[in-house]
Amino acid sequence: MKITEMERLRTRLDAELAGVSEVSVALSGSMARGDYRAHGGQVLSDLDLIPVIRSVSDVGIARNRIGPVLRTLADEFELTCTAAITLADNFLRVRNAAYVTSMSNRPFLCDPLRLQDELDRLTTPNTQDAFPWLVQPVTYYLAKAGWTKPEENLGKALTSTRLLISELAGDDAVLRDVSGELPAVPSDPRVPLDPAEAATLLDDCVSILTALTGRHEIDLLPSSREFLRRHAAGDAGETIFLAVREQAFLENQGLPFEKSSMAARPTSRC
Question: What is the pLDDT of residue 183?
Answer without folding.
Answer: 66
